[in-house]
Every structure is written in C-alpha cells, then in structure tokens.
Amino acid sequence: MIITMRSDAKKNEIKEVVRRIKKLGYETKIFSGVKKTVIHVIGVSDRDKIKKEVEQISGVEKLVPILHPFKLVSREFKDNDTIIDIGGVKIGGDEIVVMAGPCAVESEETLFKIADVVKEAGAKILRGGAFKPRTSPYSFQGLGKKGLEYLAKARERTGLKIVTEVLSVEDVPVVAQYADILQIGARNMQNYSLLKTVGRFNKPVLLKRGMSATIEELLMSAEYIVSEGNTNVILCERGIRTFEKYTRNTLDISSVPVIKNLSHLPVIVDPSHAAGDWRYVESLAKAAIAAGSHGLIVEVHIEPEKALSDGKQSLKPEKFKKLMRDICAISKALGRRIQ
Ligand code: PEP
Ligand code: MN
C-alpha cells in the first residue's frame, strides 16, 4: 500500500501519518520526491484499517493498494505514461526518439563525423561511451573525461543531446556534469549503490536490462532510482542471454508491451547489442517500433571495420539513413511521430 501526500502537506502531517501506521503495527518507508512525499506501508496491510486511521489528516491525498513488488514505477501507482523532457526532446509520448552514435567515443574527429551523420538522418540524441564496460581488461576502456569533453563539443556543434554510460559511483558527478542522460549499462543493472547514487541526481537515467535479468528485476532496479527521488528513468531492452548463438543476445520483443503494461516509464530498444551483427539491426529496430517502443538506441560508425569496439554491430551511415526512413514510415502508419 502507498499513501500519497498532497504537494502542500506539512511535515507534521507526514509524521502523524507515519505514527498512526506504526501504531497499527506496520513498517513504513518514506519517499520524498521533488513534488510530493509518498509513504510506503511495507508488507500485506489492511486497507480499511489504514484508511480509517489516516483519511482525516488533511495532507493525505490518496491510498493506493499495490500488489507488485515494484511500487513507484508501477501503473497501479501512476496510470498515465511518464514523459521525460530532455531539453525539449520528449521520450515516452507519441514521438519516437532515436539515440545513435558510436559504441565508444574514439577521437574528436570521428565523433564529430558520426554526430553529423546521425543528426542529418533525424536522430535527436548522440550516444557514445567515454567509460566502457569491457569483458576483457585488455580491450579499449574508453577515453574517460576527454571523451566526455568531445561529447559536449559534439552537442555544441549539432544541438544533439548526449547519452553516455556511467560505470561507477565515483564517476557519477563528472558524467552528470556533461551528459543529458546517464546510461546504466546491462552489467550494472543490479549495482545498487550506483542506482541509488544516480537516483539522487537531477538527470534522466537510461537503465538497460541486465543480460540475465527478468523484467521484474529490471523494474525493481528502476524502483531503486525512483525511490531516491529521481523519477526520470527510461528503460531499455537490449537483449537477454539465451541458448541461441547466431545473435549476440536474444531481443525480448515481448518485454516492450509487458513493460508498458506494468509500468508508466518509457521503454526503448537497443537492437545493436541484441543482434551483435549489423545485418540484423534493421529488422530488430523495425520490430521494436511496431511493438510500441518509445524509441531506439543504435550504434553507428563511419568506418565500422576500424571501430575500437562493437564495429561488427555498427551501422554505416547509409544503412542508418535507410533505417530512419523506414522507421518514419512505420511510425506514420501507427499514428506516431518522428520529427
Ligand atoms: C553500450 O551501450 O555500449 C553497452 C555496453 O551496452 P550494454 O550495457 O547493453 O551491453
Ligand atoms: Mn557497444
């Protein structure tokens, strides 16, 4: 059960609600959001008893019974879709938003060239890792702060917003200083201290599904971020590990309608890390839009054969332009928009 307090609720009213709930024998957890405070009554609770006890306190807005283990991210808690505004780029509404760029920021020159390509093709957000989570410690680890500076310059040049991964708690302040969206990668989806830290920053978060995580675990991870006060979380399906070997991961396309049914948060799809091969990226991207995804994050490189990471799954400019044209047509047919 969740008790939502009105935005003008006074501190002593919140305290009084907690006192009365505790008197009934329940534990509580308070979430103090930017706009309002909500009180979570932990465990199975008697709605009528709680209602009788707190409804006359004027700061109480409503009581919402929530059966799922995730609360604040659930549809039961908030019925209407969350739309996240990233400096005018809105994710979660009718518009399809495409994020595109290299797997990693490699050099200023390459990044600028790729940024120009994806901008011209209609992407709104530039992706590129400055801190890279690599399976091998001997692989390219990213340019670090220098990479963030190149991303910021590319933003200045093109007007594209920036999404980039943050790997560790210590790096959150510097990445947040440069990025428009903080990416939490698949490998860190259950790094709870990192989730809590980004939850305390006022920056949208792109949370990628762990490669062996269930949808429920993904939503529980989102709950960690939202319960710290940051409600701007975009979920990302990027494929899960299965017995299939011909693709890098198996894109769980059904996660899109399932997540949209369970949660009010926006959901996008990464066809690149799912496919692991550029030849399949287009089909998966189109399927994602048809399934109702709010957007895509796609790897694009001007010379994939020379890329320092994930060249095999990166689209060349021409292929990306064609994909954008097709996405436009599909969006229109579905009554959605892509600017
Ligand atoms: C990435 O986006 O480059 C990346 C490492 O993705 P994931 O965390 O989904 O593997
Ligand atoms: Mn990659």
CATH topology of the largest domain: TIM Barrel
How many domains?
Answer: 2
Mean pLDDT: 96
Question: Numbering strands along the chain, what is their spatial order in the largest sheet?
Answer: 7-8-9-10-11-12-13-14
CATH H-level homologous superfamily name of the largest domain: Aldolase class I
Could you list some keywords that capture this structure?
single chain; alpha/beta; Alpha-Beta Plaits; 8-stranded parallel β-barrel; 4-stranded antiparallel β-sheet; 11 helices; binds phosphoenolpyruvate; binds manganese (II) ion
Report what the structure shows.
It is built from eleven helices and 14 strands. The protein is α/β, with parallel strands linked by helices and 339 residues long. Helix 6 (192-199) links the parallel strand 10 (181-184) and strand 11. The longest helix is centred in the C-terminal third of the chain and has 17 residues, at 317-333. The chain is elongated. The two termini are 40 Å apart. Bound molecules: phosphoenolpyruvate (PEP) and manganese (II) ion (MN).
